[in-house]
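Thread: "does anyone have the structure for this chain?"

Original post by V.I.:
We have the sequence but no experimental structure in hand. Need at least a predicted one for the grant figures.
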Amino acid sequence: MARNWPMVEREHELETITAALTGNDFVGAVLTGDAGVGKTTLARLATGAVGAANGSKIRWVAGTESARSIPLGVFAHMVGVSAAHDPVTFMAAAREALLADGHTVIGVDDAHLLDQLSATLLLQLAIDKAARVVATVRSGVPVPDAVTSLWKDGHLLRIDLSPFTQRQSVELVENMLGGQLEGLSANLMWESSGGNALFLRHLVEGALEAGSLRQVKGVWQLRGRAAVTSELAALLEDRVEQLPGTVLRVLELLTFCEPIDLDVLSEIAGEEAVEAAESRGVIRIAEHDHQLLVRYNHPLFGEVIRRRLGIASARRLRGRLYSSLKERPINSASDRIRLAELALDSDKSADLELFEAAAADAIGLANLPLGERFARAAVERRGGVEAADLLARALLWQGHRIEAERTLAVFDPDLLDEVQLARWGSTRVSNLLWSMGDADRADEVLTSVRSRATHPKVVATLDGLASACAVNENKLEEAVACAEPVMAAPDAPPWAVWWAAFGGGLALALMGRGDAARRYAARGHAVESHIDGLNQFMSTHAEVLALTFTGDIDAARRCASSPYTYSSPGQYLAWGMTKILQGTVDVAQGQFPRGIDNLEQALAALTTEGAAAWMFPARLRLAEAYSALGRAGEAAESIAAAAERGGRHSAVYEPQLEIARSWQAAAEGTATPAIRLALGAADAAARAQQHAIEAMALHTAARFGDTSVAGRLADLAARVDGRLVQAQARHAVAVAAHDGAGLDAAAAEFERIGVLLSAADAAAQAASAHERAGDRRRLLESAAAANRLAAACGGASTPALRQSAQPLPLTSREREIANLVVAGLSNRQIADRLTVSVRTVEGHLYRACIKLDVTDREALAELMRSGSSSGKRQGS
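Reply from O.Q.:
Generated one for you, tokens below.
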């Protein structure tokens, strides 16, 4: 696949080589490093720059295995055959030919492959300073003494070229692809390539050819095993072909079981073979948890060996490994998963229990594609409802919601025992509610299952599930009522505790009872090892919300950190959910560019229908972030996408959706509709007992300039946990009183809490209050604080910040109408948007034009656009 690969800047190394080629301390440089790290590319770039600068003649030669046996092999083409029998004359002729054009730079690629005569000539040129020299040498291979003397004796500067850093690798791939590379995919590709530029290039091209690297919503994602091109395989196979058969067998076994215990590998392949493989540098042995594990020295060797093996030999090798490992104790989930993987495609048979247990392990580690493979194997081996339940759990998150429903619907609940009934019912309700969005059918199934349950632990599990369903349907009091008995029972089963921790915890967080929500979360953490990996993110989301609502931003940031080490593309859903948690904290903190990046990548990763319930809150946070930066159009798109998937299954988010709409209206420059939407959101939240959201909505209205909410926020401050609502109430009081000092104090308090956009708005409102009071000094101080805080938020643009940055002599209504003119609305559209008459709009426009000394709408719009750009520059 022909693609243009850009250069990644190695500015420091390039400057060092250039200095060595042009300075007096050395006559050049030798670049050492592994094959493929970019030695040749960098050397040619440096020599090209030097040649262009001073007119030097550049002469490049390359050492090869075939020319190594020929005296003066790389320079032979420069010398006539008449001198061939006299080495001294031969070298003199070569020297004369090389230097015939005056000032010369000699480039030698793969100098470790030079014959002795060529190496001696190169050394003599360096000693005599007759030419400038740049050479490349591969690390870890024998090098002629004369070449070694080039740097050991101080003639050439030795530069050890390291593999690319992760940042450089991502830059290289993104420049080539012309788009953003997903963080998870970037990590996996960097680890697979080892930062080697050549390997990285072939990995990307191989993945593109295989279709495993694709672009989704502007983000390039790797899904599936990293592929290698035939060209890269050929490069690595050259080294593989030189290995003895016993060492090759070690690599073949390692291909299907990496890492593998040293004792196991030695038992199957033989101790001498393993020692030989280590001495040749193709494997490495490291201690981990008091166990010696064997790995490839480079990850791509496994892919090359895999390509060489046929289906029959691969099945036989897996069978040998399986037979050996199954006799050993299974100490972890990874041990069981490895054993099941070997059995799945081997010539041996494994029992149903292994595949069921491995499926549960993989699902617990959030590797859904792998869990699905094991669960299907269990179903094919005539597994019952337990195997079907595992398969449905793997399917529903990946978006295969119809297949998940069909897998479960074939079972008659009357024929299940109560333990089976609880698991079957929980999974089916989860799929119906969160994946399919069918709240009515989910309620029917839940009611039916609960009516059949009699055992206390089964009843507790279904009560916990009912709590989770109720909170999503915005029945907060019911959610808490279902959860409380479960949380009060010390012997409640893990799934009962987790469902109750999620449902009750989220309800409590939204109700403003953050302390109680955190206690629920702590109880949920205690049972996480028994819960499916992706489900854990749901309760963590409730905990993150509780922490942000109370103003404990640092704790929220810690909570949003994932417990997983993402080592497989199959964990992409968990990775995406981690990004949602992190993006939620980013937006709460005012780190909008980072939040947008996290949330956009998350939404690109969670493209499956099974993740639809997660997309709703993610899109709301994304809309808020877009709006805060003045990107009203993108905010509107995000809100529309969220609203399209709304319904009773996601009713709990409706008040937050109205807040997002309020922010989007403010981003358009319309404060009056923004305030109206915020107050409507507060009323909707109050009706649902979502007092933390009510406080957020009321504070949003105050930030947009509403002076009527102070009393209501003060009442909430007495009911909602945490210091954030206290600060919001004091801020609203200062807004109502136009109290500059009080607004400055609010800004300082918000900054201490870590909610930077609230701090920026309060500072901007303080500047306006000081201007109104004629206090020039404090005006400047508050305006400077507002600009600093807005810049810390990525260049935020809110009504308060725009008013502070644009000292135009307009009333708030005149400014609002002028902003809608900038947005391209007609007078009739403006009237409809603001629910006023066209005549009223025309009057405000007339007065605005008089005040600003412009003659018409177009001139007014141009002036407003100019002022907005100036304000953004001040805040950037």
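V.I.: this helps a lot. The first helix runs from residue 11 to 22.
O.Q.: and Residues 809-876 form a domain with the Arc Repressor Mutant, subunit A fold (CATH 1.10.10.10).
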